[in-house]
Structure formats: structure tokens, C-alpha cells
Amino acid sequence: MKKTMMGNYAASWGAQLSRVQVIAAYPITPQTLIVEKLSDIVADGELEAKFIKVESEHSAMAACIGASSTGARAYTATSAQGLALMHEMLHWAGLARLPIVMANVNRAMAPGWSIWADQNDSLAQRDTGWMSIFSSSAQDILDSTIISYKVSEKVLLPTLISFDAFFLSHTVEVVDMPEQELVDKFLPPYNPEYKMDVKDPRSFGALTDEQYYYEFRYKMQEAMDQAIDVIKEVCREYEELTGRHYDLIHAYRCDDANMIMVTSGTIAETTNVTVDKLREEGHKVGNLQIRYIRPYPKQDILAAIGGAKKLAVIDRNISPGYTGIFSQELKSALYNEIDIPVRSYIAGLGGRDVKIEDIKDIAYDALEHDEPSDLIWKGVKK
Amino acid sequence: MAIKFQKSDKPIKIEGAHDMPPMPAALGSMLFNKTGSWRNVRPVIDYEKCIKCFICWKFCPEPAIKIVDEKPVIDYNYCKGCLMCVEECPKDAINEELEGK
């Protein structure tokens, strides 16, 4: 059934369709609508779930960890400072191997106070052991929520689904809502082998000395490696049911491209449109959208780049002291594999709009210059 | 060969990652790893003074105080001798005794 909805509500309904059993959340703009809607859904009896109001995001994740440890399907959503406050608990959820799914509305870190789009919040959590998706449409958010529970519960790793503040969270789009029956067929109830059970008490997360800790890290990496195939398999299964195709990356007109732009989030959607316009002008360009940054789909990325001569990465984030984070990841993937120049552009920090004209400018600049560049500020008022 | 996620009262031989569950979860080690040996001072309940308020049972962080026949009873297999029960007892009914060598 097709409905119009904001990106935030796509997250709420994605969680409802996934039949989450525990939602623990603390409000923060621009995430609030996600959990406000879920609170309505639970209060109206449309979803059999416990909605826990907590005093902070740290507690929200702690409650999800508790719920997930008992074998309940747990959900939360947050943004920026809220996600940062969860940081310790994110490591816990990862190493405890709990398949929690969380939405994060990408918002700039303060100060200065900002509520607008910027990816630094979720990228700062890159190494916590969560699978991490950057969605680019409301449909993507809803479908990714359902898909992520299935993937997470198979590999026992949590998933973070991030999407741009306002450009996606508060923008109304048409979304095809799958029927509950269909989702139930796709996503069976969660019934883990390992769980907290009062009838079989045991301790979880207890002292782990140097004889064992290392091996838990090794096992987490194994799960991340397996996740690449599991994501593909689950996405194929979802496509059979819904006709909608997802993968770790989305390569748009990359096959014969001489220059490929590498993007994520809403900038990726704008870049697809820009690629069409540039193609009309005769430029053989493509757009490689990175959907998952963890697990990092290195082989897929290398295959998509194929014989391209040059890459232009657009990052709506920056690691101060170096450069954009997607750019660093891409360059480390290319090393020893493909030797072509990479030009790294920063754009749209703190919610500054990145329009078709801006992406065109970036493309022209990249087409014009053959030398690599670590850091090019697009549109900064110097 | 992964060890089944079942409790065992014997030490489990773990050769490597594939013998371990995905997450740090106890397979029953507390059944044989009796932490009472860590104790220097032993709390001993004087049942003449005990009013069975069970404050000690409530406060024991281990928890190593059980209720047996409607009385608080300290399980010395696991009591680490923190003496929180001594501190909390409203009737000073729990005595401290140094453990012998």
C-alpha cells in the first residue's frame, strides 16, 4: 500500500512492521517524531510492545541492551548529542552481540548548536561493532529497518540506520508499505540460542581476562565478514517479496564511467540526478553510493569502480586534522588494488544545502584536474 | 567444534574462539569457581540476637545470604567477606571473625 510519509515516520512504521517488542527512547530533534509516533502506536494498542521512557540516551541504549539480552526485539532512535551520549553502551551492545536496530537522524554535533544534517555523529561511532547504513530515501529507511532485524539476528550484531536531518527526516515522500503478513513471512519472531532467562540463570558480560577477550574480538570480526554475504542474501529475499532491490552499495551508471563520484545519504540521490544531467552534456560520469560503511563492502566497491580513471568523493563530514571519512575509507580500500587519483570534497556540513549545481561544480572540478587531492572545501566562505 | 551453550559444573577446556559462545557469557564457572576463598574476615550471624528482618539478605551484594527455614543463612562458598551485612544489621547480630590460615 502506497502512503505519503516523512522519513521519520518511515522509521516508525518500519519498526512497527518488524513487530519490535521493546522501545526505549529519549527525544531529541530531529528524531523526536520517530518515537512519538511509536508511542502513539503502542498506546493505541496497534503494536504489542513495551514503550520505556528513560532519562537519557545512555539509559535508552542500556534498556535496549537489557531487553535484547532476554531475547526481545528492541528498537530505539536518536540523533547527534544523543548518539554521542550512548557511546559507551554502543560498544556494549556490539560486544554483547545484541541484534538491536537503531535509527539515527544525522545531525551536526554542537557547538554551535545545530539541528541540521551532518554525518559526523554516526561516523564517530564507526568502531563500536555496529553494522552501519546510510539511507537515502524514506522507502530505504522503512525497508532497511525490516531488513536489518533479519540480518542482525542472523549474525548477532546491532545495526545503526542513519539518515539526513530534515532533508529526509522531515521530507514527505511516497513509500510503499509492505503488508504485515508479508513482513511476518520474511521476519520470523526472534528466538536466540543465547539469552538471559530466569529459569536458566547465568551471567553475561562478566570479567573476561586476556585469555579470552582477544577471541571475542576475533569472533566479532568473523561475524562482520559473514554479514556481507548475509546482507546480500537477505536483500535478495526481500526483493523477491517486494520487488525492491538493496545492496551494500548502489552503483548508478558506473559501468562505462570515466569519472565516478562516491557519495552517501541524500547527497547520493541528488548526485544520481546530476549524473543524468552530466551524461546529457556528454560527460561519462557515474555515482557510487556507499550504503554500508560497516561492514565495509570493499570488493563490491572495487568491482563497481572497474576501469574508471578518477574518483571524486563527497563527504558531509570531516575528521578534523585529516579529511572526509568516506574518502579515507575509500582510499584505504584502493591501496594495493587500484591506482587512480582520488579527489576528496567536503560539502554540506551543518545542513548547508548541496544542490545539483554544487555537485555539477564538483564534477567539473574533478573532470578538469588529473591530480589527486586530499581536501577540497566546496562552498566554504573563506 | 563449538561448545554447546549449556551449563557445566566442571571447568570447560577452551582451545580457541570456536569453543566459545559469540558473547562473553558464563557457561557455569561459578558452580566450581567458589569465591569464598577470597575472604579474610568471616561474618557470623548470632541467631540469639537476629530478629529476622532480612536486611542482611537484602544488602548482600554477592548475593551469598539465603533464606533457609525462615532464617538468613550465609553461604560461605561465595561470601567474599565484604561485611556489608555487619554494617547494615540493625541489631549488631553479625560478628566478625578472622579467617584462620
Q: How large a portion of the residues of chain B is in β-strands, by DSSP E? A: 15-25%
Order of helices and strands of chain A: EHEHEHEHHEHEHEEHHEEHEEHEHEHE
Number of domains of chain A: 2
Taking strands numbered 1, 2, ... along the chain, how are they ordered across the largest sheet of chain A?
3-2-4-5-7-6-12
What is the number of helical segments of chain B per DSSP (H or I, 4+ residues)? 2
CATH topology of the largest domain in chain B: Alpha-Beta Plaits
Please list the strands of the largest sheet of chain B in the order they lie side by side. 1-4
Total number of strands of chain B: 4
The CATH C-level name of the largest domain in chain A is Alpha Beta
Q: Tell the overall outline of chain A.
A: globular
Largest interface: A-B, 22 and 15 residues
Mean pLDDT of chain B comes to 90
Q: Span between N and C termini of chain A? A: 49 Å
- Helices and strands of chain A: which structural class? alpha/beta
Description:
The complex is a heterodimer of chains A (382) and B (101). Chain A is built from 13 helices and 15 strands. In chain A, helix 10 links the parallel strand 10 and strand 11. With 382 residues, chain A is an alpha/beta fold. Helices cover 41% and strands 19% of the residues of chain A. The model of chain A has no long low-confidence stretch (mean pLDDT 97). In chain A, helix 1 packs parallel to helix 7, helix 3 runs parallel beside helix 5 and helix 7 crosses helix 9. In chain A, the strands form 3 sheets. Chain A has a 7-stranded mixed beta sheet with strand order 3-2-4-5-7-6-12, with helices on both faces. Chain A folds into 2 domains: 241 residues, Thiamin diphosphate (ThDP)-binding fold, Pyr/PP domains (Rossmann fold); 129 residues, Rossmann fold (3-Layer(aba) Sandwich). The longest helix of chain A is centred in the middle third of the chain and has 30 residues. The model of chain B has no long low-confidence stretch (mean pLDDT 90). In chain B, the strands form 2 sheets. Chain B has a two-stranded antiparallel ribbon with strand order 1-4. Chain B has a two-stranded antiparallel ribbon with strand order 2-3. Chain B has 2 domains: 33 residues, no CATH class; 65 residues, 2-Layer Sandwich (Alpha-Beta Plaits), CATH 3.30.70. Chain B has 101 residues and is mostly beta strands. The radius of gyration of chain B is 18 Å and the shape is elongated. The longest helix of chain B has 5 residues. Chain B starts with 40 loop residues before the first strand and ends with a strand. The chains are: A alpha/beta (382), B mainly beta (101).
